[in-house]
Design goal:
single chain, alpha/beta, Rossmann fold, eight-stranded mixed sheet, seven-stranded mixed sheet
Length: 454
């Protein structure tokens, strides 16, 4: 073990479980967390709270500087600001820009960097590989590596492990390796990490699984579910996202039958869900976020098995912004009016309420398509701080009345929209994408996705 590292390890020591737990929770085991993003920083903070000895690494100097000041740059995470401040003040959490620096000190290494897809929708593992190289260069016998990033199945054995072995000169067994997927939602990260759901762990061997269990039993109060193999754990995380994408696609496709069937499809979905074997999701204007829209491609492209269901689900969900705009056009036509030249409010730009994140948000194509059709688009979101990617004119919530809109599209129902005084508008055409509006007593013409026209 390098001189810069502490005395204790968790892997390959031959010590009793109680001795290892004491070492882990007493700060004798230095933990490196690689990637201090919206999920990484809360994870590092929880590790710091449990162990008192965490060094986080992130290549963004502004992120590192804010943490070193004892501040959380991540908005909308209850308790995170205070926890980061307390840990930094107590020298239990610090941050560096160089992953190699963290690797030289840590004996437990936790990777939670993003797995992106390229322009051809191929998984891009370059960030995971780069961090693995840095860790490998500082890896010593007895170290333990955990992957929390969502990756295609077989990534740990076929990508991460070879890099670690080549860079370190060690072999699996000299160090441990496990996949322990992040199962966390923005806005509730600390709660989720600490135990909203059991933690899934899968090791590259029995001892790796046992060490991962020991670690996360100290972190997660809901317990740990060990899998038989590291690739099974990788698949569990992926399958969770694929289930949601396919289920939402089913709901969205059923919502397209609303007018032809002449029924409230949302009512039918809700009623069907009273059966114990049914859990249909809710239709909407599209699927956003940094997970669900991307995970299907982790199976579609790297493997030879055909995936017609996953591909179809992506097509259906990616088509919902166009469907939403088409419904607006139909409502204009029904009134003998032109969408071109009309002023349209696009309400809610983030991919989910209360979260300042626009990755894959359906509001992006909706605003762009409306502008291409000649509408005067006004984009409104009290949560968002950067409107640059969006077509249309950024408009404050208190300015929406003055722009004299002809229509509104509810994409993401931010809490602040509850204060909109719909009676102040002349009759509008409204597309409610999220079943969030009750405008039956108003003169507005409302079409709700999945329920139809009021």
């Amino acid at each position: 073990m390098s001189d810069s590292k502490r005395i204790q390890s968790l892997y390959g020591t031959g010590k009793s479980e109680s001795e290892l737990r004491d070492a882990f929770t007493s700060g004798q085991i230095p933990v490196g967390v690689y990637g201090l993003g919206k999920m990484g920083l809360p994870l590092a903070a929880v590790y710091g709270d449990v162990t008192g000895n965490v060094i986080g690494a992130d290549i963004d100097p502004e992120v590192v500087a804010s943490i070193e000041r004892g501040e959380s740059y991540v908005d909308g995470e209850p308790g995170l600001d205070d926890l980061v401040g307390e840990l930094v003040d107590g020298n239990e959490l610090r941050a560096v820009e160089e992953p190699a620096e963290a690797a030289s000190e840590a004996t437990v290494h936790v990777i939670i960097v993003p797995t992106l897809i390229d322009e051809q929708n191929q998984p891009d593992l370059s960030i995971v590989e780069a961090v693995s190289e840095d860790i490998g260069q500082g890896l010593d016998a007895g170290d333990f590596v955990i992957i929390e990033s969502t990756v295609p199945p077989q990534t740990c054995r076929n990508v991460v492990l070879p890099v670690l072995e080549e860079e370190s000169g060690l072999s699996l067994g000299d160090f441990g390796l496990a996949f322990c997927p992040e199962r966390t939602a923005s806005g509730r990260a600390l709660k989720d990490i600490r135990g909203s759901y059991p933690k899934v762990v899968g090791g590259a061997g029995e001892e790796s699984t046992a060490v991962a269990e020991l670690i996360y039993e100290e972190i997660n109060s809901s317990g740990v579910i060990p899998t038989s193999d590291i690739a099974v754990a990788e698949a569990v995380k992926l399958f969770e996202g694929l289930y949601r994408d396919v289920n939402i696609a089913l709901a969205n496709e059923l919502a397209r039958f609303t007018d032809e069937l002449g029924i409230d499809v949302n009512e039918a979905l809700e009623t069907a869900n009273t059966a114990p074997y049914v859990d249909l999701h809710t239709p909407g204007p599209g699927v956003g976020g940094h997970c669900i829209p991307y995970y299907p491609y982790f199976l579609i492209h790297p493997f030879e098995t055909d995936t017609p269901l996953l591909k179809t689900a992506r097509e259906v969900n990616d088509g919902m912004p166009e469907f939403t705009v088409q419904k607006l056009r139909e409502e204009f036509e029904a009134e003998g009016r032109e969408l071109q030249g009309s002023t349209v409010l696009v309400l809610g730009l983030t991919y989910r309420p209360g979260v300042n994140e626009i990755r894959a948000t359906p509001a992006l194509p909706i605003a762009e398509q409306l502008e291409n059709l000649g509408a005067d688009v006004r984009v409104v979101d009290p949560v968002l701080d950067d409107f640059t990617p969006f077509a249309g004119i950024p408009t404050d919530l208190d300015e929406i009345y003055a722009c004299d809109p002809d229509a509104a599209v509810m994409v993401t129902p931010q809490d602040e929209f509850d204060d909109i005084d719909w009676d102040r508008f002349d009759p509008l055409i409204v597309i409610d994408g999220r079943q969030s509006l009750d405008l039956a007593a108003t003169p507005h013409r409302v079409y709700t996705i999945g329920s139809g026209r009021q």
